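Researcher: I need the complex structure. Ligand is flavin mononucleotide. Inputs:
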Amino acid sequence: MKTLIVYFSQTGFTQKYAEWLAEALGGTTLTMKEASKKDDSFFNDFDAIIFGSWLSMEKIAKADWFTSRIDKWKCKKLAIFGVGASPAEYSGIQGLLDKTLTEEQRKYAKAFYCVGGLSYEKMSLGSKMLMKAFAAMLKGKKNKTEADEAMIKHVASSCDYTDKKYIEPIVAYING
Ligand SMILES: Cc1cc2nc3c(=O)[nH]c(=O)nc-3n(C[C@H](O)[C@H](O)[C@H](O)COP(=O)(O)O)c2cc1C
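Model: Output:
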């Protein structure tokens, strides 16, 4: 199976998952920027296309790069994954995965979540300011769950929670 993994990564966590997926599936990686320069015929060669990007404000950043193209790729295996600082059990994750694909798109594509981390060193100044706003939004949530509290701790400083176990469901889905 010829697999392409297109990724959008600001601080490297999504890139790491894209590379792990390429290794596990014998696939090729491309940045979203590189992939955007390719014409439609380039994608015809692949049996599976995976798109990965980081979570920004409870959405997969640039998900529309993938969702606006997939109706042309219905005959391929299709997956999208988000990489965020949230623990996998965080209450918002399932909801955001459900919103990533329409009901129609869920018939031929699947959304996944991989736990990434935070790198305040590599983040842009704008992102750092947005993270502060994000942390404040979380702190302001009423009836915070244990997972919300865990998330508040995750965003307090740089951290790396990447683990190869998070690609296993994606690999199983593509190979299935
Ligand atoms: C502006 C901003 C908003 C973010 N929003 C979320 C979010 O809603 N949920 C989450 O889990 N992580 C959030 N994060 C954390 C990133 O998704 C996380 O650091 C991710 O691992 C970055 O991946 P990358 O290294 O590929 O850029 C946010 C980070 C930034 C900078």
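Model: Summary of the prediction. Residues 9-14, 54-58, 83-86, 116-118, 123, 127, 130-131, 134 surround flavin mononucleotide (CB under 6 Å).
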